[in-house]
Structures are given as structure tokens and as C-alpha cells.
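Lab notebook page, bench 4
Experiment: in silico fold of construct C2
Operator: M.H.
Input chain length: 78 residues
Purpose: comparison with the prior construct
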Amino acid sequence: MSKESALRAMREARYERQAARPATTPRLRPPVAPTTPPSPPAEAAAPTVDEGLCGHRSMNGRTCTREHGHAAKSHRYG
């Protein structure tokens, strides 16, 4: 018997066992009351940026440390 034939026989046997079982109703989870996520602290919601800095944010959340309105094309995250 080849490997594929053995796998097919096992799959068919499993299908036959499952078909022979009495039908059961699926278990339903009890309803859960919706919860609201806790609100973040006021400090975390509005990060402070110095007035003299650019403040441009990178994709990973760091802010540019160059002066506001700098002429350089790249930002310096520090």
C-alpha cells in the first residue's frame, strides 16, 4: 500500500466514524457584556513637544529633535 493510499484510507475511516456519531448541537458561549476599554491617562493622550523642536513623528513613534521649520530634508530622531 502506498503512502497516499494509506492516508486516504485513514481519512475515509475517520469520516465514517464521524458520520456514525449522533449529531450534537454546537456549544454556544454565554453572552458577554461589552466592555469599554479603559481610557488612557491624559499625559499619554497628548505627548508634549517643545516649542522649538520640529516634532515630526517617525513610523515607530520617535520625534524629530531638529529645530522647528528646519531646512534639512531629513529628520533627526534622538
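Observations: Residues 3-20 form the longest helix (18 residues). Helices lie at 3-20, 42-45.
Next step: discuss at group meeting.
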